[in-house]
Design a protein that fits this description.
The protein is an alpha/beta fold. The chain has a domain at 74-196 and 238-271: 3-Layer(aba) Sandwich (Rossmann fold), CATH 3.40.50. It contains 10 helices and 9 strands. The chain has helices spanning 18-26, 51-54, 57-64, 68-82, 98-105, 122-133, 170-182, 201-217, 222-233, 241-251; strands at residues 5-8, 13-16, 88-92, 114-119, 141-145, 156-162, 184-195, 255-262, 265-271. Strands 5-4-3-6-7-9-8 form a 7-stranded mixed β-sheet, sandwiched between helices. A two-stranded antiparallel sheet has the order 1-2. The longest helix has 17 residues, at 201-217. The N and C termini lie far apart (40 Å). It binds ligand GEK.
């Protein structure tokens, strides 16, 4: 089956997204277009990861998060470097399993390794299981429908929080990262991707406008952009890049860096 092509605006290259091609190659239906906020809604409710969103999620995240495909693609490279045999990898807030698939792709030779993929959304987990079953890797994946605040992390050589921490209340974030840190082995890596906010209002305003332009280019109307923004505002609290780095250092990570950024969408690397 022909792989879907994603335009990567970070590098201005056209590349085959590992996410898109993984899912599309193994799971037959082509990706369904996100029209969740297309029509005017009489009453706008908070954004939820329900069946409505889940059925179009692959399209939604690729058309809403500039640089998403690049980040997911690079997870394979981080996994090849950091994952050790007989350890565990965690995909926290796994959605449809894009990050799980990316890690799984490059660790076939790390014998005894398994991936634990966690999400609160039963609809996400159900679909993610289908994608994993259609994937050819032999690395075991255990799905847990659970809150990432309630799980224990053990013997981890790699942990991924790809655009998930941003959905936790700010006051819960440090405790979650402490729990992650304590379950990681020495030398293990955490990849944390987040939409950030800028303390400088001129930068905040400019990059918000550039992001909205990106969404228009992806085919979203102004109504879709504003309804989605209003729906997600209450449940996704953004913090600055400095706040993320300082928190990672505060819980004990020895090496930290922001390795990727496209407008307000960033990814951090933290090594224990
Ligand atoms: C990807 N990582 O494609 N516990 C568990 N799951 C949660 C929680 C929680 N407390 N809060 C939210 N979620 C993925 C993309 S999406 C990002 C992650 C986005 C889950 C939620 O159900 C959803 O599936 C995911 O976190 C966030 O690489 O939609 O912007």
């Amino acid at each position: 089956m022909e792989a879907l092509i994603v335009k990567d605006y970070t590098t201005s290259l056209t590349l085959t997204s590992p996410y898109t091609s993984n899912l599309s190659d193994h799971f037959m239906p082509p990706r369904k277009r996100d029209t969740v906020y297309q029509d005017p809604l009489a009453k706008l409710t908070d954004f939820e990861f329900d069946e409505n969103v889940v059925s179009v999620f692959e399209d939604m995240i690729n058309r809403s998060v500039p640089g998403y495909a690049t980040i997911v693609h690079n997870l394979s490279h981080f996994a090849a470097r950091f994952v050790e045999p007989n350890t565990q990898c965690y995909d926290l807030g796994c959605s449809l399993g894009a990050s799980t698939l990316a890690m799984r792709k490059s660790i076939e030779d790390k014998k005894g390794t398994r991936i634990i993929s966690v999400d609160t959304s039963a609809d996400m987990i159900k679909r993610a299981k289908g994608y994993i079953e259609s994937d050819s890797s032999s690395i075991p994946v255990e799905f847990k429908q659970a809150d990432i605040r309630d799980i224990s992390i053990e013997n981890a050589s790699m942990v991924v929080l790809n655009f998930t921490l941003q959905f936790l209340p700010i006051e819960d974030r440090e405790k979650l990262l402490q729990n992650v840190f304590s379950g990681m082995n020495k030398g293990a890596c955490l990849i944390l991707s987040e939409k950030i906010r800028f303390n400088d209002e001129a930068i905040q305003e400019t990059l918000t406008a550039v992001h909205h332009q990106f969404k228009r280019e992806q085919g979203y109307s102004d109504l879709e952009i504003s309804q989605k923004r209003d729906a997600i505002e209450n449940i996704m609290k953004q913090e600055s890049s400095d706040t993320h780095i300082q928190r990672l250092q505060g819980v004990g990570f020895e090496h930290t860096a922001q390795w990727h950024q496209n407008t307000a969408f960033c990814s951090f690397l933290a090594i224990k």
